[in-house]
Specification:
The chain is α/β, with parallel strands linked by helices. The two termini are 29 Å apart. It has two domains: 240 residues, Aldolase class I (TIM Barrel); 69 residues, Orthogonal Bundle (Non-ribosomal Peptide Synthetase Peptidyl Carrier Protein, Chain A), CATH 1.10.1200.
Length: 337
């Protein structure tokens, strides 16, 4: 698969951009586990052009996590163009436009998935960004605003016509947010539309190797993007890649392996953030790293309320000592096979 001049292996796996999750530490862990392409956390165009500290910090990218895209969102074309030019200076492989975020504070302002209510503005903004930057431009969006406006087949054609180099589609409307099952039939309709020449990447509900293979086989997408299922479970990339390559399911990582990965993730997080912030943002990962251990409620509470790095390390090592080679679940129950 290629996106403009970016070459990726067949059946590539993409890490979805997620606020306060896909920071450099998590991106590095996912890269180690087999992710082929990833994105920064999505960045506000308004924050970037105003030199906001949080937005500017998200531009930090590192060679070991390449190839990588910087994702931007906003509701004003001029601000988005200016932000894209700033982002280009950080030297990512591409610029991605977020037309898919369903969060109220973003969508209700007309940004993210809110742009699905104003398709002419979406197309015009995309064209302006494509013309302004030298890097490839890609888009992530949804099926439509609601069930009455699932117009992604037409929208995909129009986005391709103004020059985007790949399109990622989340298989829900904005009205669904993350409720209900993702509908991949319209993703497949876009991919199989003879007018479409750019790569189509499918997103939504991929949480196992078997689901990933099914979506590649059934809908013919060029790549798959995975988001929430990777939080505290970055080895999902490893599992999917191995299954796609060999047809074999890897065993669930033992608690020893998960402890090693959790500690490495914590150390990486501390490299990029001051202690308290690193601790707070690691909690959503740590709550999942050891999910499924029996009688774990009290230990989990300690892990998620600890305020010192050394205390967290002690708790993780206690978990390692107690559970060792224990594997939380048989793959047949985890993956529904």
């Amino acid at each position: 698969m290629t996106i403009a001049n970016i070459s990726l292996r067949d059946y590539p796996l993409f890490l979805a951009p997620m606020e306060d999750i896909t920071d450099p530490s998590f991106r590095q862990i996912c890269k180690m586990q087999g992710a082929d392409f990833m994105y920064t956390e999505f960045i506000s165009s308004d924050g970037l052009i105003r030199d906001g500290e949080k937005s500017v910090r998200k531009l930090d990218i590192y060679d070991l996590e390449r190839p990588i895209g910087i994702q931007l969102y906003g509701h004003l074309t001029d601000a988005m163009v200016e932000a894209a030019l700033i982002a280009e200076e950080a030297k990512p492989e591409l610029i991605d436009i977020n037309f898919g975020c369903p969060m109220k504070k973003i969508a209700n302002r007309g940004a993210g998935a809110g742009m699905l209510k104003n398709i002419p503005l979406m197309i015009g903004m995309t064209e302006a960004i494509v013309k302004a930057v030298k890097l490839p431009v890609t888009v992530k969006t949804r099926l439509g605003w609601d069930d009455g406006s699932k117009n992604i087949v037409e929208v995909a054609e129009r986005l391709q016509d103004v020059g985007i180099k790949a399109l990622t589609i989340h298989g829900r409307t904005r009205a669904q947010i993350y409720k209900g099952a993702a509908d991949w039939t319209l993703i497949g309709a876009v991919k199989n539309n003879q007018r479409m020449k750019i790569p189509i990447i499918g997103n939504g509900d991929i949480d196992s190797p078997s689901k990933a293979k099914e979506m590649f086989d059934r809908y013919g997408v060029d790549g798959i993007m995975i988001g929430r299922a990777t939080v505290g479970r970055p080895w999902l990339f490893r599992d999917i890649r191995h299954f796609l390559d060999t047809g074999e399911l890897l065993p669930e990582p033992a608690v020893n392996e998960k402890a090693d990965l959790a500690l490495l993730h914590l150390e990486k997080s501390l490299e990029f953030k001051e202690g308290k912030r690193a601790i707070f943002e690691m909690r959503r990962h740590l709550s999942n790293y050891f999910k499924g251990l029996p009688h774990f409620k009290e230990t989990r509470y300690r892990l998620l309320t600890a305020l010192e790095v050394d205390e967290i390390k002690v708790i993780i090592n206690e978990i390692r000592q107690k559970w060792g080679d224990f594997r939380t679940e048989d793959k047949s129950s985890v993956y529904g096979i």
